[in-house]
Records
---
Amino acid sequence: MDMWKRFCDHSFYFDAVELGIDVSKIGTFDEVFAKVDREKIFREMAALESGSIANFDENRMVGHYWLRNPAIAPSGDLKTAISEVWNTLDRFAYAIHSGDICGQSGKFKNVLCIGIGGSALGPQLACKALSHGPRNKMALFFLDNTDPDGIDSALAELEGKLGETLVIVTSKSGGTPETRNGMAEVNFAYERAKLTFSRHAVAITCEDSQLDRQAKKEGWLKCFPMWDWVGGRTSIASVVGLLPMALQGIDHKKFLGGMRDMDSLTRVHEKTNPALILATAWYAATNGKGEKAMVILPYKDRLDLFSKFLQQLIMESLGKKLDRANNMVEQGLTVYGNKGSTDQHAYVQQLRDGMNNFFVTFIEVLSDRSGVSPFIEEGITAGDYLEGFLLGTRQALYENGRESITLTLGNVDPYHLGVLIALYERAVSFYASMVNVNAYHQPGVEAGKKAANTILQLQKSILQHLRNNPKQSFSPENIAQAIGSDDVEIIFKLLEHLAGNRRIQCQKSTHFSQNMYQFLS
Amino acid sequence: MDMWKRFCDHSFYFDAVELGIDVSKIGTFDEVFAKVDREKIFREMAALESGSIANFDENRMVGHYWLRNPAIAPSGDLKTAISEVWNTLDRFAYAIHSGDICGQSGKFKNVLCIGIGGSALGPQLACKALSHGPRNKMALFFLDNTDPDGIDSALAELEGKLGETLVIVTSKSGGTPETRNGMAEVNFAYERAKLTFSRHAVAITCEDSQLDRQAKKEGWLKCFPMWDWVGGRTSIASVVGLLPMALQGIDHKKFLGGMRDMDSLTRVHEKTNPALILATAWYAATNGKGEKAMVILPYKDRLDLFSKFLQQLIMESLGKKLDRANNMVEQGLTVYGNKGSTDQHAYVQQLRDGMNNFFVTFIEVLSDRSGVSPFIEEGITAGDYLEGFLLGTRQALYENGRESITLTLGNVDPYHLGVLIALYERAVSFYASMVNVNAYHQPGVEAGKKAANTILQLQKSILQHLRNNPKQSFSPENIAQAIGSDDVEIIFKLLEHLAGNRRIQCQKSTHFSQNMYQFLS
């Protein structure tokens, strides 16, 4: 009976949003909860929501909570801007569905979303989790990388259909290379098909960005505004998430309603604040230092991208070198997982028997399906098995000292997906307060872009050198010397890549370091 | 120049299979390599390949290496059995493609694979990585769970097409509940469509299993044999992987050829054994105790399921409580990842700046695409950016003390996918030798099945009690007492699930522990 008492004391059910959170299997929850500086958390939350520069490294406000409730935005202009986008979006989706806006081959049937990071993960999650399958209003495709073969694969799926495909290009600055490259390649494909790209294109971008100027100059179908106070990983409530949902026929207003209702609950300055409970459980499970990984196990196929979405939301927000006082902290919280019970036939073997270096978040969905389930054996449905696997695994882990959280949803629908995502967004905000990091910038991502640029400059120098000496062949070391670089290894890697795409010639030696490279005549 | 020297000394290129392995960014590689008991590893490898009971806990041989080279199988019967399946498979795929074997609505156009764990992950990886897109010979669908809503989604995609859909049911014993439930639900769908399931069904199962008997009794189109010496996670070279590949139009013989060639290389008793290099690098990076997670980052969209495949192969093989001498070791090696550069806009922020609790395996593919790439800016292609992101990230991690391995492939084709998978299969065998665990059983998975059964029994008792007292309502504690169980928490969870599917009635109280449940009259 002790476990039942602990369960009753540590399980919270939020009637208003039909969500349960059970932290009874996080051993030190109470001790950690007692120590949490709630005053700080709520003060920071209030400041952020009222428009303070919460993302101080980038000198930006953090406004994703306004997106579902413009009434709380800190200025009249912002309130208006947010609700105007809603109206524009509704009218635009209606015009696309009705055929008032058409592609060159007729009514739009497909949507190709070009974007990376939050510009892809949010719409991918929502559109998979809330799909009506063949009854979706439009078919969705994604280009979320700069892999030429991946671009070819996406375009092959759309072959002969580009004239009825709406292309959404999402990039705040317009400068994200993967997105810009994808757009350029898709543009070429429209040219090859003797179609005009701009007559099928929509931009989602900040005003006066490179992309905004291009779209306006070329007369694209539409330009939706983005704002610097919305981060990619929290952009699902902006037009970035809402437009693909609306086009597919998902009730994006119910989705926003779910987020708004959860936001209200997470503003409550009490113990029964769901995001405070969740963030405290994370802290308790990982000692506030990410000592254990968060394994996300939704027992529902529709939610199998949720872990990937959270991987970005949590790891990109919390994975920081410095805290807010510039102390070296190397913080973070590792997230992985797919779905149950499928994963029980894979890595859950290690969770049960291997290292105790994780805690699980089980996501339980009470409703098995929209219709009635047949019995597979006497009195037992396929869904009973799913529930049985969840409960059995959870208990076995617990008995073996492996901690877990369980979230319970009645259903996976637009409203409850909104509830779930808003819960995690706020829990990330709270946890960042607890460990004192800026959850809203991503210096490593910016640094990654710069590092790639340096390397592309090196490639230009290499090609220049080979072009200037067309009859000669060079070893990697020769080239390094000639162009005045000591990155022989990277020069070698670049040469191999260029040769692998028949852009230069390679004469192999017995050891690769002695390979000789030459301009292709 | 020091880094270049280290790179040259620690990078290995295997001409025969066109694969490169660079371990220069694993700091203690040399020290660990010097200590590896190679004699033990090669002795165990030879014993395993010659048919010893390498999976001693289950009293089974471990024969996946024979599947691509029957000549080395330990008996004439096995040699014959393996090559006979190849012939049967070829003839069957030909008959399906030619229309000699048809469904009730005509030529088969779709394949629905029902299976979980290795029975799904292998075919999913191969069929995605080697897809020809719209030019695939057949369209593939998967059912890999017992989620009723997920089953509905898969069936919705096949609505009106079941008569031209071939259903492959894969289960060694036929007793895996998820697979059996999926099959039962699909069977119902055929009945609703007034079609005969058996005329569209193929089984892959051990001889005389429950599934084998059912298939033979009902006269299914075909029964392909499986053997107890092939584990699910290493079944991709068996008919489990080969049949979906062949049906989709993938050259499965080249795939097997790649595996066979890699197997030959990993039998070499020398330093230049690619699997020995890889397993040593894992050991060096994780201190032989899984102290760091393995992040898999292929910079190629086609390979984005590879990490999920490895997650099973590695974590299910190595995640063990006991070593071979029954010492408590709680071993394992955590695997996660998706693809680059996409992930650079997500969790790679944490890898760059957060905790140093991982090492990365970069997978570089030299060829960008089958055709010629257009220039996005002067002299630079989309593929150059992809390469630049890989090299930039790798270097930045290295400079920050984060270790990595880099694998280089010329291309992702059937042969090289075979090479890659066979490399990891053998590396897992070797690593298991190093840390002395049985890599071929999965006691936790079996335990999970049993735990679920206990819970389903509890559900039966609950329903029995409510049915016997139809006019009364009960709290979870009442029921626990009545049926003589002290698992009140699980009883409550089961009641909520039953009520959530309208199979019993729930009368809510202010606290959920006081909810009252009643039989639905």
Note: Chain B has a mean pLDDT of 97.
---
Amino acid sequence: MAFMAKALFPVTSELAINKRRLLRDLNAISRIGIGDHGSVTRLVFSIKELRSRQLLIHLMRQAGLKIHVDRIGNIFARWNGHNPKAPAVLAGSHLDTVVQGGKFDGPVGVIGALEALRTLKENKVPLRCPVEVVCFVGEESSRFGYSTLGSSLVAGEVQIEDLTHAVDAHGTKLEDILASMGIYRDNLASLTRDPSTIKAYLELHIEQGPILETKGKKIGLVTSIAAPTRFKAVFTGQADHSGTTPMEMRKDALVAAAKLITYIEEVCREFSAVEKGRIVGTVGAMKIEPGVMNAVPGKVELSIDIRSITAEAKDRVASQVKDRAAEIARARDIDVEILPIREELPVPLNEELLLLTKHICDQNGIAYEVMPSGAGHDAMQMAKITRAAMIFVPSKRGISHNPSEWTEPEDICLGSQVLLETMIRLANDEG
Amino acid sequence: MAFMAKALFPVTSELAINKRRLLRDLNAISRIGIGDHGSVTRLVFSIKELRSRQLLIHLMRQAGLKIHVDRIGNIFARWNGHNPKAPAVLAGSHLDTVVQGGKFDGPVGVIGALEALRTLKENKVPLRCPVEVVCFVGEESSRFGYSTLGSSLVAGEVQIEDLTHAVDAHGTKLEDILASMGIYRDNLASLTRDPSTIKAYLELHIEQGPILETKGKKIGLVTSIAAPTRFKAVFTGQADHSGTTPMEMRKDALVAAAKLITYIEEVCREFSAVEKGRIVGTVGAMKIEPGVMNAVPGKVELSIDIRSITAEAKDRVASQVKDRAAEIARARDIDVEILPIREELPVPLNEELLLLTKHICDQNGIAYEVMPSGAGHDAMQMAKITRAAMIFVPSKRGISHNPSEWTEPEDICLGSQVLLETMIRLANDEG
């Protein structure tokens, strides 16, 4: 909390971002990869995604920033301030999207940071250290099932084994794409950034959830990023004719699955009510065999996703769910198999930075909510090598990864403005 | 029960079917349309199904029977007996199959009847009336979603409206196929058979359920054929991000669906325990949107199939299920829509014929089970125009509509033998 006690560099409340320019550039990005119903599809390393990065570089050049693109395509645009050798304040996000996603998940953080930096530079705001806008490659897992690719590489967090199995729907291997860019198993480490060159990482992002809207807050300040435990439960009973098999002779895998689905909701609701750490549990996908109207389901596969901001709560719920799956199967004399998919640890963000952003909101009379992030972000990776903070702006009806994803332009501008203030304070903090 | 009291024509217990020939011909039929893992696919009006009918006609010709093929392709092979003008005893089933079905569902009843008739003819058994083997077209609903097509036409039970919507997966209309055979809306009635020309209809069939095997019985005598009520329940909640949407803010359509699935099992088990009429209820298929691991399901469609041998029980359970669906939706503040698919009435089979077949089994020391049929059969339609009876043989593990469908050759032969005895008694009954 060093900066709180110290005298801060000039108070910057008169300094305002250029809203028109911010929204114009955000629009320009969102037109790349636009499809039905205003959906946006820019899968990592697709031609659309590359084009969005080219446009970003163009905008960065126009702003007169010093640009560095690393081997995988992460873009860093820098303004040096008074002390080019000092560790830099980084701010950014990503431009890649899910299939038929929205316009805001990612670009708001990149263009919001760019606009803040442009404002600093134009107004020649004196800064004690460099400030950088960063655009990370491949934050979404949609193409290769691997999320926060670019930031994981920068943070030195990529496991070789994970990349080996990363293949897209057309059979293209992530490893082959990386090889075409000169990135191999034995030089992966060359992409990491020396933590001593970074002072902090800030990420502006849409909430992708309903909390800010529900509570009528404009800004969310993130305490920590929840991590998912993902696994499949596969119930195997016996497929039978739906007309000829009496109820008492059935081994219906779907009824077993249904019992687990309702249990997951129950246990997560209970824990959320009792525990501090919020827990969410979801069955989002199912596979039913044979899956026809006139057959008792013989095999059902459930995809289960459990998230929390505390590892203990998550582990406890996950193991309760697994126990219950076994219990249900035993009681019905069928089989169940648990197939692990991914297990990650929740990531706490920096408390000092949280206090700073709270302070800024308080000073400017902005209604904010201190909250966890249910979704993963590049900040998860950057938090491993530097102090990291996230600023959320509201998502209409909480919808994201969907063409209906929407954030009010005013809210985006406010987010970028809070980012600007935070960048200034951090860049001029002596800590 | 006329025939029970009367002096019967010669007792025929010395007369035995030719097991080798029966099994040889059954094998020959099952080789047509054979695929992976011994599966059999002969969809109605496919080249494979037509070829199986050609083979049947060849076998009927070899047996010296008088063959009549009606316009849609139902095959009738007749041996006249002493009184060619008398109403005939019909026995048969179908040769078409589901996609990747088994070797026995249908052909056992056709070849089993043919073998019985061949045995009668070879042994010049004196019969008071004609006996016919019949092969009905299109008993399975797999291609056009319309079941017992051929027997429905013979019984005059086809509703024009049903055929209008019958289209296969490739867009081929059933109506167009019928038109190519000279069958139009205004001459459908020409396919019906005058009920006065039929004395009774007998159908030998595999059980397609586990009851005979479980009870260690070789023969099932069917009291009535259960009918399905089929409908869809479509729950519409709200698709949300699985990480960012707190449990208490969700409108998860899948949890609602899961609650209905467990209720259907519960209510059917209760009714089966209390009511005479056995009830079965199944959710065999589901559609989940968006159906991805990291999204709370916004829309779920359940295919529900409820069957019973009494219409009252079925209606009561169906309406309880619908009520509960509405209740679940109301409690969770989501929507539910019920889309009817098909509603049929259970069909009781003939009590006199049931007594006759029981008598035959008793006389021959055959362990039989008097039972309802959960699955639909051509006998359902024939029962509307004549006295009908069904004889079941055991299905291994109750499996049907599956390459693993299996009935012991000995059991098939026994079924054909019981059919033979029943045909003789009926043909010589004065009633």
Note: Residues 1-12 of chain B have pLDDT under 50 and may be disordered.
